[in-house]
Amino acid sequence: MELYETYGDDIQFYLVYIREAHAIDSAMPMGGNGMPIVEDPVSQEERNAVATVCTAKLELGDMPTLVDDMADTANSAYSGWPDRLYLIGLGGKITYQGGPGPFGFSPDELDAAIRAELGLTEDEPEAEAAEESEDAAEGEEAADAVEDSPEESSDQSGE
Questions:
Q1: Which of 51, 113, 115, 156 could hold 96 in an S-S bridge, CB 3.0 to 4.6 Å?
Q2: Contact partners, residue 23, CB within 8 Å, separation at least 6
Q3: Which fold has domain 2-122?
Q4: What is the tens place of the pLDDT at every residue in 46-56?
Q5: What is the pTM of this model?
C-alpha cells in the first residue's frame, strides 16, 4: 500500500486477482486467523466474490482490482501465481517483472523501477520532484507573462 499511496497520483495501480493460492481444496490450503477460508471458485461469479472478500481482508483500500477469468488468462500470460509485481511503462512494455512471491516479492525493487520510469533520482522524494516540476512550470508561465506584457509607458503627462 505504501507504493500506491506514494505514487498513486502518477502511476495507475491495479491488483489482478488470479486463482486463489490458498483455497482449502488447493495444494497449499490456508485460512483462519482473520483470513478467509475459501474453496477454489468454479465460476466467474464465485471468483469475483472471493476476490472481494480477500481484498477487503488485505485492507487494500481503494486500489482498483481486476479479476482474472476462469481460464486464468492473466495468470498464464504473466506467471502471476502465487503473487508477482509488474510495472508496465508508458510505452506499454514491461519495465519491471518481480520474482514469484512470496520470496521474490520485492516492493523496494518495484519502487526503484517506478522512480526510474518517472525520472526521479534516488534521493529525490516523489513529492519534492512533483513540486519542483510545478514550480518550474509556474516560473516559465511567469516569464512568458512578463515577456508578453506591454512595456509600461513612461509618459506621465496625465493625458
A1: 113
A2: 29, 38, 39, 40, 41
A3: Glutaredoxin (3.40.30)
A4: 999 988 888 88
A5: 0.65
